[in-house]
Write a structure and sequence with these properties.
The chain has about 325 residues and is mainly alpha-helical. Helices cover about 60% and strands about 5% of the residues. The chain starts with about 25 loop residues before the first helix and ends with a helix.
Length: about 325
């Protein structure tokens, strides 16, 4: 889930500290030189199209693919196992284990790709100019493929009964159950689900990813603390979203479209009902987080590369 300047040292970087991706990033310092107030670059350079053909970027994306695959497999098995144990507080147990799992996976992927394993992190980083939109596209592809592989791995090890009962641990707003007068739908309304997705994803970005993106905080806290904070915040949001609604059929806030996509593609069926919510909600939250960053004073968000974000690209393109 990455930081801006450094949870892990970057041997290829001329700067000391952590970076959002340890492999060579878009060479913004050279690309964005200005003359007479105008940028000396083509649209392709602003978008980092050269990174689409960079072996380093594609090799880094392997960490995103494997990290997301493991994330989907582990999170979905955690969901199933927590409920199967028939404890009085399955949501609490699930949230704690989710927090630990995410922190470990982030620490494992940060040295290679920057540790995103979530389109939400990648999209936010691209909006802020921490990575190019081209690198973001490669990461998106890897994350979605990883989600599918993780769901396939889970399908291979669980029984058909568990697969059907828990829908491969996928993201659901509702389920269909037999009723006295025929099948009935149980779960949340689409509007409720969308609001929960937007709010939880924004809290996730505001309360944890912000620390990783801000080079000052990332340097002070270090990789272990930052990853632990991100995992803890996600665990809390999982607990809140699955507990406060108390609605059977609702799987809780997804906050990771790639994780929701995998089981939907493999299992299908009702997992596609309202699936767009798990994409639209995080996208709205990312844009809201980006606008928040743009509104607050510049000195509250330390990072030289942040001036080359979406709005500046658009402004200098027209």
């Amino acid at each position: 889930m990455g930081s801006h300047n450094g949870v892990v040292g970057d041997e290829e970087s001329p700067h000391n500290g952590i970076r959002i991706q340890p492999v060579l990033s878009t060479p913004m310092a050279e690309q964005w030189k200005s003359e007479g107030g105008k940028m000396n670059t083509t649209m392709g350079e602003r978008l980092g199209l050269n990174e689409l053909f960079s072996p380093q970027v594609w090799r880094a994306s392997l960490a995103e693919l494997l990290g997301t695959a493991l994330l989907v497999f582990l999170l979905d098995t955690i969901v199933i196992s927590s409920i199967q144990t028939q404890t009085k507080t399955p949501n609490l147990i699930m949230s704690v284990v989710v927090a630990i799992t995410i922190a470990i996976l982030l620490l494992a992927t940060i040295p290679v790709s920057g540790g995103h394993i979530n389109p939400v992190i990648t999209f936010s980083a691209a909006l802020l100019g921490l990575i190019s939109f081209s690198r973001a596209a490669v990461y998106f592809l890897a994350q979605c493929l990883g989600g599918v592989l993780g769901a396939l791995a889970l399908k291979a090890v669980v029984s058909s009964t568990i697969e059907e009962t828990f829908s491969l641990g996928g993201c659901t707003l509702s389920i269909v159950e037999p009723g006295p007068k025929g099948p009935i739908t149980i779960g949340l309304e689409t509007g409720q689900g969308l609001w929960i997705e937007v709010i939880c994803t924004f809290i996730f970005l505001f309360a944890s990813v912000w620390i990783a993106f801000d080079e000052r905080q990332a340097k002070v806290h270090g990789a272990v603390v930052v990853c632990s904070i991100i995992g803890t915040v996600l665990g809390l949001l999982v607990f809140v979203s699955t507990t406060v609604t108390e609605t059977k059929g609702y799987a809780g806030a997804g906050m990771n479209p790639a994780r929701c996509l995998g089981p939907a593609l493999i299992r299908g069926g009702h997992l596609w009902d309202g699936h767009w919510v798990f994409w639209a909600g995080p996208a709205i939250a990312c844009m809201a987080f980006y606008l928040y960053i743009k509104i607050i004073p510049d000195h509250h968000f330390k990072g030289k590369e942040h001036k080359h974000d979406l709005l500046n690209i658009l402004r200098h393109s027209f």
